[in-house]
């Protein structure tokens, strides 16, 4: 599924090094993002996956200055977009990048759509903010965008209001607004949450189409089925840091960090406290491996200092885990013995109906149609 090409390696579209975001609270500083580094290549889908409170959303919002400062403080060794630094840009400069070059789709579409303006006004406004075009030309582009995201009767629905659409349709409207500036990078935060499986299938088809047109995607999700369906690479987050990374086939075929294994093993369970709750109770260590308090393989070397460095694990060269057991003096065999592939291949899962079929064959339902 990778869209990287043979030959010289291109400069990543987005390159993040040692991103840190801490937020002042009544109880002191909360380290929401703690030393995160990753790249997103051109024409690639990278998924940030982890449980609630792991730092996925704050990571994405820190990249383009959406985290309020104060109470937050954001720093990094480097955040470069298309070869240029963005971490030291002013608020005005960041606004010129957001929407036009980097677009966000937020988890709650209701918060991204203004209830007092018609859909057409909101999409055409987004177009005209980024391009010098007439209102009529922008309205024509808006019709095309609504059709692209799967809104039926697009021209007449321009005059509808957000509350006249179902939740799944509102999510597609929010994506249309994000695509209005023809961005190079789309950051989508839990875009398939709270939609049924048929609408989810259509959204995943849409994301594949977007990447096929050349736009890169940084996708935040806790849904492993979504990751399996669209990701090129996976970044597994826990306690504000990345603990495992690699091509989707490698990470799913051989989950190598104990937290990744626990995440896959517990997929579908809803009981138990979130990371936010465990952090507030002091159950997640502030140093050493963040997962060691819950890790069945924790040893003395896991405590103290910084999060363990990344070590290559068997298989794909780009597959690495932040775990001392994979170091030169470590013994990863107990972890590997417990590793099981969390999912079958995409083809097998799709044939079993666990991942909904594409929108071309899915049966429409009330969620996928306008009210």
From TrEMBL:
Classification via SUPFAM superfamilies: P-loop containing nucleoside triphosphate hydrolases
Species annotation: Halorubrum xinjiangense
Gene Ontology BP, a term: peptide transport
Record keyword Zinc present: no
Membrane topology according to the record: Peripheral membrane protein
Known partners and oligomeric status: The complex is composed of two ATP-binding proteins (NikD and NikE), two transmembrane proteins (NikB and NikC) and a solute-binding protein (NikA).
Annotated EC: 7.2.2.11
Reaction equation(s) it catalyzes: Ni(2+)(out) + ATP + H2O = Ni(2+)(in) + ADP + phosphate + H(+)
Keyword hit for Cytoplasm: no
Protein's UniProt name: Nickel import system ATP-binding protein NikD
Occurrences of domain ABC transporter (ranges): 14-264
Pfam families: ABC_tran, oligo_HPY
Alphabetized NCBIfam families for the sequence: oligo_HPY
GO molecular function, one term: ABC-type nickel transporter activity
Coiled-coil segments on the chain, per record: none
GO cellular component, one term: plasma membrane
Region (Disordered): 327-371
InterPro entries in alphabetical order: AAA+_ATPase, ABC_Ni/Peptide_Import, ABC_transporter-like_ATP-bd, ABC_transporter-like_CS, Oligopep_ABC_C, P-loop_NTPase
Keywords in alphabetical order: ATP-binding, Cell membrane, Ion transport, Membrane, Nucleotide-binding, Translocase, Transport
């Amino acid at each position: 599924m990778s869209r990287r090409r043979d030959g010289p390696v291109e400069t990543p579209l987005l390159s993040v090094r040692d991103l840190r975001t801490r937020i002042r609270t009544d109880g002191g500083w909360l380290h929401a993002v703690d030393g995160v580094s990753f790249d997103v290549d051109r024409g690639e889908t990278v998924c940030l996956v982890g449980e609630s409170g792991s730092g996925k959303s704050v990571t994405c919002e820190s990249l383009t200055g959406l985290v309020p400062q104060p109470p937050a403080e954001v720093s990094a060794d480097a955040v470069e977009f298309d070869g240029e630094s963005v971490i030291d840009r002013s608020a005005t400069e960041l606004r010129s990048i957001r929407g036009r070059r980097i677009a966000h789709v937020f988890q709650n579409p209701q918060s991204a759509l203004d209830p007092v303006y018609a859909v057409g006004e909101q999409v055409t406004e987004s177009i005209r903010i980024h391009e010098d075009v007439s209102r009529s030309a922008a309205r024509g582009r808006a019709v095309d965008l609504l059709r692209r995201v799967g809104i039926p009767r697009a021209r007449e629905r321009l005059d509808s209001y957000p509350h006249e659409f179902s939740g799944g349709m509102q999510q597609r409207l929010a994506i249309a607004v994000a695509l209005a500036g023809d961005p190079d990078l789309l950051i989508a935060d839990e875009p398939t949450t709270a939609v049924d499986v048929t609408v989810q299938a259509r959204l995943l088809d849409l994301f594949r189409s977007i990447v096929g047109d050349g736009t890169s995607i940084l996708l935040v999700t806790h849904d492993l089925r979504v990751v399996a369906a669209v990701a090129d690479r996976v970044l597994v987050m826990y306690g504000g840091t990345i603990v495992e990374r690699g091509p989707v086939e490698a990470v799913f075929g051989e989950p190598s960090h104990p937290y990744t294994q626990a995440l896959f093993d517990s997929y579908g369970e809803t009981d138990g406290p979130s990371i936010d709750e465990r952090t507030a109770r002091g159950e997640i260590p502030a140093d050493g491996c963040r997962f060691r308090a819950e890790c069945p393989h924790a040893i003395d070397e896991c405590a103290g200092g910084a999060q363990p460095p990344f070590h290559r694990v068997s298989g794909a060269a780009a597959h690495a885990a932040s775990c001392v057991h994979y170091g030169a003096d470590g013994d990863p065999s107990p972890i590997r013995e417990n590793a099981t592939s969390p999912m079958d291949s995409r083809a097998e899962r799709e044939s079993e109906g666990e991942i909904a079929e594409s929108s071309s064959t899915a049966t429409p339902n009330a969620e996928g149609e306008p009210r």
